[in-house]
Amino acid sequence: MREIIIGILASMFFAVTFILNRSMELSGGSWIWSSSLRFIFMLPFFILIVLIRKNMKIIFHEIKNHPFQWMIWSFFGFVLFYAPITYAAAYGPGWLVAGSWQLTIVAGTLLAPLFVQVTVTEHGLIKHRQKIPLASLSISLIILLGVLLIQLQHAGTLTFQDLLVGILPVTVAAFAYPLGNRKMMEVCGGRLDTFQRILGMTLCSLPFWLALAIYGVIRIGPPSNTQITQSLIVAICSGVIATTLFFIATDRVRHHQEKLASVEATQSTQIIFVLIGEILILSSPMPNGLATFGLVLVMLGMLFHSFYSKRLSTIQTKQKLLA
């Protein structure tokens, strides 16, 4: 239950990404700067945090031991996550990008068979592939239905091209983010805390962001002062606060697929925060009756996830006591 609350708080700060990315595009900014500046600005914050905590050395030790895994899964978790989202924001409204992003709550659940769980028995260590948690998947599908109903309010104003460039890149991001996050948790094996892991992933993805920034200077010129300011806000709210909260929540339940699916499903609340933000900041229309029903389904789905996660915790506690 506590991890779900942390996940919802993370979603509130993540929502800033979709609102400000769309705002930057509407004011003439480029997705190239929206994506690269976020991670470039994130870097000094996490360097400072890790230096204050005096645990920088182990990060480089871990990267040195598993360089390929760090590079590839940081690329999936950060680059293939954020570059497609900012690209989609250049061509579609924030509600469409945020709504399409909710595919990640199902994507994370479907990725379970890609991971191996180790169980300690009297006969030694037994490895087996994790199974898709069907109960969590069913609840997540209820949330996804709610998200689709919310999107139907504006669907009639979209062209086929809008749907293509607004949904396909986000679909890639929706699978890449949980895959990169889960694989990095697996690689780290609990040896790094959340701040160390985010800093390590930021460092390993930095060559791409710097290359993209150089391309941006050549192709479109430097970013405007407005885009720099808004990118800094996104870096703090989404890159530092939201990412840290979400990684803390997923780290706590990384060994339990059902609970992990529940935490990842909290990202569905982003669309609620995005709708509120776009109404207040970008003067978007209020949700109609169908969209309101969709919002209710999203909230009900999160309640079901919370109750299910709490029930699992109770069962696991009883099993430990009996053992």
Would you kindly provide a written description of the structure presented here, covering whatever features stand out?
This protein is mainly alpha-helical and 323 residues long. The protein has one domain. It is built from 13 helices and two strands, in the order ααααααββααααααα. It has helices spanning 2-26, 31-52, 57-65, 67-89, 94-101, 104-110, 134-155, 160-188, 194-219, 225-252, 257-265, 270-281, 289-322, and strands at residues 116-121, 124-129. It has a two-stranded antiparallel ribbon. Helix 11 packs antiparallel against helix 13 (289-322). The radius of gyration is 20 Å and the shape is globular. The two termini are 24 Å apart. The model has no long low-confidence stretch (mean pLDDT 81).
Keywords:
13 helices, Multidrug resistance efflux transporter family protein
